[in-house]
Amino acid sequence: MKKILDLITAEMKAAFANCGYDEAYAKVTLSNRPDLCEYQCNGAMAAAKAYKKKPFDIASEVVEKLAASHVFAAVDAVMPGFINLKLNSDYLADYMNGMADEEQCGCERTENPMTIVVDYGGANVAKPLHVGHLRSAIIGESIKRLGRFLGHHVIGDVHLGDWGLQMGLIIEELKDRKPELPYFDESYEGEYPKEAPFTIGELEEIYPAASAKAKSDEEFSTRAHNATLKLQNGFKPYRAIWQHIIEVSVSDLKKNYGNLNVSFDLWKGESDAEPYIAGLIKELEDKGLAYESQGALVVDIGEEGDNKELPPCIVRKSDGAALYSTSDLGTIIEREKDIKPDWYIYITDKRQELHFVQVFRVAKKAGFVSQDKKMSHLCFGTMNGKDGKPFKTRDGGVMRLETLISDISQAAYEKIMENRTVSEKEAEETSKIVGMAALKYGDLSNQASKDYVFDMDRFVSFEGNTGPYILYTIVRIKSILAKYQGVEDKYQGEEQILAAATDAEKDLMLQLSRYNEIMETGFTELAPHKICQYIYELANAFNRFYHDTKIISEEDKKRQASWIRLIRLTKDVLNACIGVLGIEAPERM
Ligand code: ARG
């Protein structure tokens, strides 16, 4: 369906053109004075300068042309030259009926689908998931779903950190603990065991122990570095251990991401870039882009218009090792070969901002991707505790994802039990859904780049701009619809949404009509928080309408049927919106 704003703008453009003014001035926006009007156009002010006339005169001319438009109920020129608009209620009701008839409530799939790689999650094999990975997973999942909803071909890649020093650390620690394993026996010539020589529990303990040891024990740290190099150079026994580490860790990660309702199409990682590294370094050298600096190989990335000097991108360290940037460049080459994305979207915390500027610029300079390739880094801020410091457990450790999820589900459970509308058993089930919504919505409703405070009490509250409030609204609509099912003398004609009878009803319709535009904006701007803001406003509009409308006892059956259709549409729109955020609603709560 056409966006309501575009339809309104088209009317305004025609009116400007009819008066002999450039239609470029006919820009319409949502009103910032909802008490006065619903939409507004301030174009007469800018036009006044160009045409050397009074803004009010231009506004008045345009308003006259709009008088006969079926789109508006009221069009007013107000001093000094604003044009205030109110939509015609019949027109709006028609638009609602259109939405109710269309697939995806009128939010169309694009005619020009892009292939998009969303690189998110970013877990590091064998290292614990931290809250940064949680944010990346939640935000990335929503971007992926939103892109798909709009008809794009979106591929989610977890891009594991599976190639770094943690591998050498684990290998050396394992050697110290279990020297009898065949991987450490140089004379061993048989096959290596299929079973991993450790469980996930052990692995989780081995890595932190090794990492701590490396800090105080220089000899151990050197050994770990060497083991990492050996692994990267293809040393067979270490490759075998590495394979085990990946298997054990990935199956645990899948479980963790699964609990978050986050899933990836690709489980690739930094190690997959390895085959491309040597070639890409050579290409950078051959093209004269890479040069030696203090023993390292670097590429300058400065561009005209930079307001500060950006450090060059290091592609090889002085000891010959590749780096994070090199592996991201290798991954780009691989993706160009296998996927040919039109758009790359990376989702990490904002401390990696410079890294991605470097990687994108080198990739373009070297021609690994075309000059105009869309490459975005959606960076997010820190999730802080109430003390304003990065979120930790009570004893200061890294918060385990499972703990976080179970804590928030527990808090949700208590809230649900306060209401006492469902049985204890149902509350328990529902609390998982509600807890997840609280967590995700609490995150997504903030502009990603900003830090935010993880406030469990606020997140699980049924009031305010929270996940549970949105779910509660959906559940409320479901319950009215179920009651209507039981109403005997239903209207038997064709259900149609009628022109709004009250301001609250019209306001609900106005909110609904913004839906397809919001979905698109949320995606093109990579801004799920805008969808959250919209959902909140829509839920508020619904609740105000519901507050002063007695739907089930309404005697005018035609009117009642209209309301039923309207609230069903509201539910469908809310469901679609939470769906793209990776949130689901329970039946009751
Ligand atoms: N593993 C990285 C980390 O924990 C995130 C990876 C992000 N993706 C990428 N292509 N660099 O910070």
From TrEMBL:
<comment type="subunit">
    <text>Monomer.</text>
</comment>
<dbReference type="InterPro" id="IPR008909">
    <property type="entry name" value="DALR_anticod-bd"/>
</dbReference>
<dbReference type="GO" id="GO:0005737">
    <property type="term" value="C:cytoplasm"/>
</dbReference>
<dbReference type="GO" id="GO:0006420">
    <property type="term" value="P:arginyl-tRNA aminoacylation"/>
</dbReference>
<keyword id="KW-0030">Aminoacyl-tRNA synthetase</keyword>
<protein>
    <recommendedName>
        <fullName>Arginine--tRNA ligase</fullName>
        <ecNumber>6.1.1.19</ecNumber>
    </recommendedName>
</protein>
<dbReference type="Pfam" id="PF05746">
    <property type="entry name" value="DALR_1"/>
</dbReference>
<dbReference type="GO" id="GO:0005524">
    <property type="term" value="F:ATP binding"/>
</dbReference>
<dbReference type="InterPro" id="IPR014729">
    <property type="entry name" value="Rossmann-like_a/b/a_fold"/>
</dbReference>
<dbReference type="GO" id="GO:0004814">
    <property type="term" value="F:arginine-tRNA ligase activity"/>
</dbReference>
<dbReference type="Pfam" id="PF03485">
    <property type="entry name" value="Arg_tRNA_synt_N"/>
</dbReference>
<keyword id="KW-0067">ATP-binding</keyword>
<dbReference type="InterPro" id="IPR001278">
    <property type="entry name" value="Arg-tRNA-ligase"/>
</dbReference>
<feature type="domain" description="DALR anticodon binding">
    <location>
        <begin position="470"/>
        <end position="589"/>
    </location>
</feature>
<keyword id="KW-0648">Protein biosynthesis</keyword>
<dbReference type="InterPro" id="IPR005148">
    <property type="entry name" value="Arg-tRNA-synth_N"/>
</dbReference>
<dbReference type="InterPro" id="IPR009080">
    <property type="entry name" value="tRNAsynth_Ia_anticodon-bd"/>
</dbReference>
<keyword id="KW-0963">Cytoplasm</keyword>
<feature type="domain" description="Arginyl tRNA synthetase N-terminal">
    <location>
        <begin position="2"/>
        <end position="87"/>
    </location>
</feature>
<dbReference type="InterPro" id="IPR036695">
    <property type="entry name" value="Arg-tRNA-synth_N_sf"/>
</dbReference>
<dbReference type="Pfam" id="PF00750">
    <property type="entry name" value="tRNA-synt_1d"/>
</dbReference>
<dbReference type="InterPro" id="IPR035684">
    <property type="entry name" value="ArgRS_core"/>
</dbReference>
<keyword id="KW-0547">Nucleotide-binding</keyword>
<feature type="short sequence motif" description="'HIGH' region">
    <location>
        <begin position="123"/>
        <end position="133"/>
    </location>
</feature>
<keyword id="KW-0436">Ligase</keyword>
<comment type="similarity">
    <text>Belongs to the class-I aminoacyl-tRNA synthetase family.</text>
</comment>
